[in-house]
Every structure is written in structure tokens, then in C-alpha cells.
Amino acid sequence: MCFYFMKSIDDLIFKDYRIQILNLENQGIESLKGIEKFKNIERLFLDNNRITNIEFLSNLKELQVLDLGNNQISKIEGLEDLNQLKSLKLNKNRITKIQGLQNFKLLEELNLGGNQISEIEGLDSLENLRELDLRNNQISKIENLEQLQKLEYLDFENNRLTELENLEKLKSLCFLYIIDNQIPNIEILKKSPNLETVHLAGNPINKNNLNEENYYFYICWYRYD
User: Fold this and answer.
1) What is the largest CA-CA distance in the chain?
2) CA-closest candidate to residue 224, choices 5, 62, 169, 213
3) What is the pLDDT at residue 205?
4) What's the confidence (pLDDT) of residue 13?
5) Going by DSSP bridges, is the β-strand pair 21-23/153-155 parallel, antiparallel, or unpaired?
6) Residue 162: exposed, middle, or buried by beta-carbon count in 10 A (0-12, 13-18, 19+)?
7) What is the Cα 193 distance to its own chain's centre?
8) Is the dihedral angle over the CA atoms 167, 170, 171, 175 positive or is it negative?
9) Residue 10, class by beta-carbon neighbours within 10 Å (0-12 exposed, 13-18 middle, 19+ buried)?
């Protein structure tokens, strides 16, 4: 479905409020005003707009997928009533703090890549989270993830990590991306029971510590045992 550029969702000519999927990517939208009328929405795509504030979403009780990537959002707020969410994308915004996610018991996918986040926090209640994307931030320490016992995919590409720590507590972790950090040693990964693939390129890892039997090249580690 094709839309013209508009400043708010109230400017939308299409007025079928019964729809369950709405894609408004690349529309130049600055405000979410008007979205509250679409109470049956289950999947909402608002990537690549000019949105600065998360608001007017509290009526969307059926919402399961929300994509607000590539906007101008600086604070995670206004999502407290969306407790059916399974996928939330807030990548490529201006977010500095992880907050406002405490009601998302069903959330399985969270993308906060490409922001200005320096500390991992506010994730304790996400007991069903399976994928967490924190690439392209300013994180220097791996912490506060121990409650995420269903987490399978974790992406820390292009952060400020100098040490791998606290990952052994993530019993379901299978895929780890730590490309372009400052990590010299990966021995601790042997304590992660289900870890299958680790992408390591762009780290100052001492190659003398790499066992040929368990490591495939320098850029990617695969566990075969």
C-alpha cells in the first residue's frame, strides 16, 4: 500500500481502523497522533521516519510487533500498556538509557542497536527474550543479563568491550557477535554450555590461545564437541 508523505498519522487518508497490519515506513512522519484509533493493530511498522516521541500507543492492546527503527527517539517511554509485544525494534535512534520495558513478559526480540547506550540495565523482566541486539552502542561491560535464561542470540558488535564476562550464566545462548571490540581473551566462552557460534573479527585476540580443534579461522569460532 502506498502513502504520501505526512507529518502525523492523523493525515492518513486511509481510515480503515479495523486493519491488523499497518506499514508506514519512509513517510516523513513526525508524530504518532492518530494511531490510537487503530485499536486492532497487531503489527506496526514505522521505520525511517522523523518520530521524536513514543506516544498515543496505549490503546493498541493487541500490538505484537512494533518497529520504530531509524527515527529520532531519545527516550523509551509510552509503551507500558503494550504487554502483548513480542518484537520491539528501536534501532538507529538517539536512546541513551534502557528503560520502560518492565511489562514486556512476552517479548522475544529486542533491537536497540545504533543508539548511544553505555550501560546494560532494565532487562530483568524480559523472561522470554530470545534475541537481543545491542550493536553500535557505547557499552563497556557485560552485566545484568542473568535473568534472560531463554536468550539465544546476543549482538555486541562495535561497542567498547574489553572483557567477556557473565556470559556463562546464559544457559541458552547459542550465537554471540562481538565483532569490533577490544577483547584479547575468549577462554571464558568454554564455560558457556550451548554456545555454537561466536563472531570475533576486529578484536585483539591472541591467536596463540586458539585451539585449532575447536576454532575455525580467526574471525569465527564454532564449537563442534
Assistant:
1) 63
2) 213
3) 83
4) 85
5) unpaired
6) middle
7) 24
8) negative
9) middle
